[in-house]
Design a protein that fits this description.
Blueprint (H helix, E strand, L loop, with lengths): L1 H25 L10 H10 E3 L21 E7 L2 E2 L4 E6 L4 E5 L9 E3 L5 E5 L2 E8 L7 E10 L3 E12 L15 E12 L5 E2 L4 H7 L4 H11 L6 H13 L1
Antiparallel strand pairs: 1-6, 2-3, 2-4, 2-7, 4-5, 7-8, 8-9, 9-10, 10-11, 11-12
Length: 244
């Protein structure tokens, strides 16, 4: 009886060793590096899997990205800054944050979940998923990057890529154009965290959209002897208006 008990005990120990070895091997990635299951679980919670919508061809001029590299990002998830290493790149054609667990990726079918409680910082540029109203359009939802966050004024930038089909020359006086991605930059603002509206970089639109700051705008233009013609000019104006 004692001999049988010892044999049974040895068998249990043997099985336990086999199971522990199996579990250890399961935690080793294909590259031989032990994986962090917690990071993988976090990645699964943050991502959405999407079907690729990029129009890919070597004949298309340009790129759907302003930066094609995956960059280490800081993610704020429902008010909490995550310390885990997650890499993102902004797909400006599809308005999506593509996700990866390493910087060497060249493609990804995973994107950051689209929620106004989830924001990210890439190369010191903060992106927020918000509702806003373009000029002469109904409100939409998408990614805006924060250019300035003040006491009462906030200035945003929206960077887009638009696919343009190839066009043939109809006459000898016209030029053909290849299929291409073109850049489109828009600017938006809000007052006291209210609704977000597009604003154009011209004096007429500034006075119309920021009518309550009319006198301050006049003072700024007169004091600096400049015209608002660039993103930098617009940013400087908003900083001035926010404290004057």
């Amino acid at each position: 009886m004692l001999k049988k008990f010892k044999m049974k005990l040895n068998f249990i120990v043997f099985i336990s060793i086999i199971i522990s070895q199996f579990n250890f091997s399961q935690s080793i990635g294909a590259n031989g590096v032990k994986s962090d299951s917690r990071i993988n679980d976090l990645f699964e919670n943050l991502k959405n899997r999407v079907k690729k919508q990029n129009i890919t061809s070597t004949k298309i001029k340009g790129s759907p990205y302003f930066n094609e590299s995956f960059e280490l990002a800081e993610i704020e998830y429902f008010g909490k800054i995550l310390n885990d290493k997650i890499y993102l790149r902004y797909n400006a054609l599809n308005d999506e944050m593509e996700m990866s667990l390493n910087s060497s990726s060249t493609d990804s079918d995973n994107v950051l979940i689209k929620n106004n409680k989830v924001s990210c910082i890439i190369n010191n540029e903060k992106y927020k998923y918000l509702g806003f109203t373009p000029e002469n359009s109904n409100p939409i939802i998408g990614y805006l990057s924060v250019l300035y966050l003040g006491n009462s004024l906030t200035l945003y930038e929206r960077k887009k890529k638009i696919y343009m089909q190839a066009t043939k020359a109809r006459t000898s006086l016209e030029r053909p154009f290849p299929a291409r991605y073109t850049d489109k930059i828009e600017y938006y603002f809000s007052i006291n965290n209210g609704s977000i509206f597009e604003i154009k970089i011209n004096k007429k639109d500034l006075f119309r959209k920021l009518n309550s700051y009319g006198e301050s705008i006049k003072n700024y233009l007169s004091l600096n002897k400049i015209k608002i013609r660039s993103k930098e000019d617009l940013l400087s104006l908003f900083k001035y208006l926010d404290v004057n």
